[in-house]
Design a protein that fits this description.
Elements lengths: L1 H19 L8 H10 L6 E14 L3 E14 L5 E10 L6 E8 L2 E6 L5 E2 L6 H4 L4 H10 L5 E4 L3 E8 L2 H11 L12 E9 L4 E12 L3 E12 L14
Length: 242
C-alpha cells in the first residue's frame, strides 16, 4: 500500500507541476519581453552563426558587396571566453580573407589566412570583442522595446521594426560599430526582425538592416545572428603560440 501511495503522490505531483508550468502561447508583448530579459541567466555557453553584409549601389558603377561570415563560441563568465572564425568575401577580390580569434580571460590571440598566431591583447576593447554577445543584444532590444511590433506564430514570437527613427538606429550603430560614407548619414532607415522560440523563450534569430541613401547611391549594412547549441559549447582553449 505504501508503494502505491508513493506512486499516486508522484503522479499527482507530475499533474500539479504540469498545471503550474507557464504556457508560452498567447503572451502579451510585455510578457514576452520580460521572459526575454530573464533569458541570459540560463546561458552558460552558446554558439552564434553570424553574417555581416555591406551592399553599395551606385547608379553609374553598379553594385559591390562584401560579406563577412563567422561562427563564434561563447563561454559566459565575468569576462567571457570565446573562439571566432571568419571568412570575408569582397566583390572584385580574387581571394577570400580568413581570420580566427581566441579570447580567454585577458589574453586575445589572432591570426589571418592561417598565418602565425599573434598576441593582440589590449589592442581591442571588450565592447569591440563582445558586441554580438547574447546579453548585449538583449540589452539593446530592451532599449528600443517601445518601438517594436510583435506577431505570434505556432512556435515563435517575432519582433519587428521598419522606420527611420535615428535614436533607434544609434542603439545598433553603437553596438555593431556601423559607419556610412558617401550617403546621408543623418537619415538612416532601419529594419529589424527578431525571432524568439516558444520552447525556451530565448532569442533564436536576429536580423538588423540599416540603409543610407543619396540621390545616386545607397549603402545597406545588415547583421544576421543565429543563436544555438546553448550550454553545449566546450571550454575554450588557447592555441599554442610559437
Amino acid at each position: 500500500m505504501k508503494s502505491i501511495s508513493r506512486l499516486l503522490m508522484l503522479v499527482l505531483s507530475a499533474i500539479v507541476l504540469s498545471a503550474c508550468a507557464e504556457s508560452a502561447d498567447n503572451l502579451t508583448m510585455q510578457e514576452v519581453q520580460t521572459r526575454l530579459d530573464q533569458s541570459p541567466e540560463e546561458l552558460k555557453s552558446y554558439e552564434i552563426d553570424m553574417a555581416l553584409t555591406v551592399l553599395a549601389k551606385d547608379m553609374a558603377k553598379g553594385e559591390q558587396k562584401q560579406v563577412n561570415k563567422g561562427k563564434i563560441q561563447y563561454v559566459d563568465k565575468e569576462s567571457p571566453d570565446f573562439h571566432a572564425s571568419y571568412v570575408t568575401t569582397t566583390d572584385g577580390q580574387p581571394n577570400d580573407t580568413k581570420a580566427e580569434v581566441y579570447k580567454k580571460a585577458e589574453v586575445v590571440l589572432a591570426n589571418e589566412n592561417g598565418g602565425r598566431w599573434e598576441d593582440v591583447s589590449g589592442q581591442y576593447t571588450e565592447e569591440e570583442l563582445l558586441n554580438v554577445q547574447y546579453e548585449k543584444v538583449i540589452d539593446r532590444l530592451g532599449e528600443v522595446k517601445e518601438e517594436l511590433a510583435m506577431k505570434e506564430k505556432d512556435n515563435e514570437y517575432i519582433f519587428t521594426y521598419d522606420g527611420n527613427d535615428q535614436d533607434f538606429y544609434k542603439v545598433f550603430q553603437e553596438l555593431f560599430n556601423m559607419s556610412f560614407k558617401g550617403v546621408d548619414s543623418s537619415n538612416i532607415a532601419s529594419k529589424l526582425e527578431v525571432k524568439i522560440a516558444k520552447d525556451h523563450m530565448r532569442l533564436k534569430e536576429f536580423h538588423y538592416e540599416a540603409e543610407g541613401k543619396n540621390p545616386t547611391q545607397s549603402v545597406t549594412i545588415s547583421v544576421d545572428l543565429n543563436y544555438g547549441k546553448v550550454n553545449e559549447a566546450e571550454e575554450i582553449m588557447l592555441p599554442e603560440v610559437e
